Amino acid sequence: FPINLGITIEMCAGIVDKNKSRGEIAREEILEEDLEEVDLQVQEVLQVKSYRSGVGTQGSKQIMYYCEVTDDQKKFLGGGTVDEIIDVVEYSVEEAREMVN
């Protein structure tokens, strides 16, 4: 769709396809999608909520995580690929929980 129709808030996401903990996979996805050059430890990635994305046999289990990253931790701005529009949107834990409840 053309950008003039608007944009949505999209969280970085991935699938559990490695022999690693879900926290480690979430950390890797955060770094891959948004912040490749940040020293982010697994214990800094906190699980907020788990939920089903749909009903019946097609609904998959989703797990939402939260982490905080400051500008001081970043080695450079950006993330993702050249053709992506990535803006940082900041929410507190309470705001994130409110959005998914």
TrEMBL record:
Keyword Hydrolase: yes
GO biological process: nucleoside phosphate metabolic process; ribose phosphate metabolic process
Keyword Hydrolase listed: yes
Keywords, sorted A to Z: Hydrolase
Molecular function GO terms recorded: UDP-sugar diphosphatase activity
Name the UniProt record assigns to this protein: Uridine diphosphate glucose pyrophosphatase NUDT14-like
Organism listed in the record: Glossina fuscipes
Gene for this chain: LOC119640679
